[in-house]
Each structure stands twice: as C-alpha cells, then as structure tokens.
Amino acid sequence: MLIKRDFRPNGIHTVYNGMDFSKIPQNVTSKEEYAKRHGLELDDNLCYVGIAARFDVVKGVDVFIKGAAKAYEKNKNLRFLIAGTGAEEKNLKNLANKLGMGESLKFLGFETDIYGFLNFIDINTLTSKCESFPYSMLPILHFPSSLLQLLLLQNLLYQLHVVLLHFLPYL
Fold first, then answer.
1. Average pLDDT for the chain
2. What distance in Å separates the CA atoms of residue 124 and residue 43, rounded to the nearest whole number?
C-alpha cells in the first residue's frame, strides 16, 4: 500500500510490536501471597478491580477513581487497586479522599510484580484518554480476568466498526 503511494521501498521499516507470552513466569505470585504482601483482604465475596498506569493526565486514572466511587455506591463488595506512580499522584489521592473512597481503594505504588497484580485482580481496566494501541491489555489475556476485558474490547471494536461504516460514504 505504501509503495503504491510512492513511498521508497528502502525507506519503509517494519517495527514489530506485541508480547512474547512465553516470557510470562509459569509460577506467578498466588492471590494469597499477593494479598498478604499488600495487606489486602482475600474474600470470595469481594471483587477487585484494578488499573496499572503511570499517573499522568492522559492515562485517565482520575476516570477510574470517579467510576470506582460510583460503582462502590451500588456495590460495597467492590475493592479498587491502583498500581503506579507519577506526577499526578497527589491530585489522584486527593480526588479519592474527596470522593470518600476510604479503604475501598488502595494505591499500591510502583508495582514490580505486575503479573502478581494481574493474577490477583478480578477485573482489569484501561481508562486512557488517548491510546494508539492498548498494549497493556496483552498480558492480561494470560490471566482469568481477561474475559471481561476481552468482551469490552470486542464491544469497542464493534462500535468502532459501526461508526466507520456510518462515516465511510463521507470519506
């Protein structure tokens, strides 16, 4: 396609992205060990919703916190985990306090055991305001919480398809 548009073939370089799933450790941190390490309650009646992100405006962690507050109003069995650090940390913690999240939301800081985190949570979220391709979704496909995320991605892709079909005649 690019060559047909008069790009020089020797000026085109392919950069591969993706993830080597064989590099995910076979023995990830158990839910019990992860809960103990972070002082989390492990109860089958609780549902842990998590996000791992850099605390930057574009990552939309504020959106996660606002959504968490609304969801918690309706279901007190929800718990929210935020893994990450960054320039917006103070603002995000203030927002969580302002919304009265209390013990239902925990900031974990920089997470060195990302696979333990992904194994522990029940639902993974991605709230970025701008994401060219959500690579952070790839590792979660290895863990049980991937189903909901996959369904959300499928729904998003379907909606995008519908929007493109609607606007195609105008392009």
1. 80
2. 18
List of E strands, the chain: 47-52, 78-83, 105-109, 123-124
Is pLDDT of 170 > 60? Answer: no
pLDDT at residue number 155: 52
pLDDT band at 127 (very low <50, low <70, confident <90, very high): confident
Copy the structure tokens of residue 55: 């605390």
The C-alpha atoms of residue 42 and residue 56 are separated, in whole angstroms, by 30
pTM of full prediction above 0.90: no
The structure tokens listed for 3 are 């060559």
Are the CB atoms for 81 and 118 separated by under 8 Å?
no
Residue 7 CA to residue 129 CA, distance in Å, equals 32
